């Protein structure tokens, strides 16, 4: 009140200013619960959503594409023309994710024979229709991609394993040999 008296020496001015201040303070006090509720709601939303918003988005979504197989190299590798856009195809080598099969140029006759059986099985499997390549990633060797491969909803890796022509392989670690 002392500041108001110093600024407004007349009693009438003091009364008007004090009434005005009382009105402003009263309105601020009345608005306080609504304002507090809005602030609390906003703070709660930030607290709940904050951690989810802070997580980085995936770098790239998993890719999938239809492919027309042009050549089967061995049980777990083939070449294909992959449709990547309207009227745009890319020829690439594809490594089948999740399986390891014997190598055509193996170290022993048993591996070479197993490789021929796995290759023939994969060729028949892939000839049944267009292959869907999903979860496509760059491979670590030979400029090929690694993908989950399916035809008609059947997974090639699982089919090779079920036919005992391949072994589960996640792409890491040392592969077991095929020669005894």
UniProtKB/TrEMBL annotation:
Residues 67-180 form the TNase-like domain. It comes from the Bacteria. InterPro entries: SNase_OB-fold_sf (IPR035437), Staphylococal_nuclease_OB-fold (IPR016071). This is TNase-like domain-containing protein.
């Amino acid at each position: 009140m002392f500041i108001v008296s110093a600024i407004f020496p007349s009693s009438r001015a003091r009364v008007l200013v004090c009434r005005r201040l009382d009105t402003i303070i009263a309105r601020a006090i009345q608005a306080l619960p609504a304002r507090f509720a809005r602030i609390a709601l906003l703070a709660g939303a930030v607290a709940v959503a904050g951690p989810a918003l802070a997580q980085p988005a995936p770098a790239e979504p998993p890719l999938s594409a239809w492919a027309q197989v042009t050549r089967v190299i061995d049980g777990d590798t083939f070449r294909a023309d992959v449709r990547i856009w309207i009227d745009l195809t890319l020829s690439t080598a594809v490594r089948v994710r999740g399986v390891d099969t014997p190598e055509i140029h193996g170290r022993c006759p048993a591996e070479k024979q197993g490789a021929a059986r796995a290759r023939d099985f994969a060729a028949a499997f892939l000839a049944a229709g267009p292959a869907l390549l999903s979860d496509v990633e760059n491979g670590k060797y030979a400029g090929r991609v690694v993908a989950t491969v399916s035809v008609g909803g059947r997974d090639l890796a699982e089919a090779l394993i079920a036919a005992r022509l391949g072994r589960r392989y996640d792409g890491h670690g040392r592969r077991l040999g095929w020669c005894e």
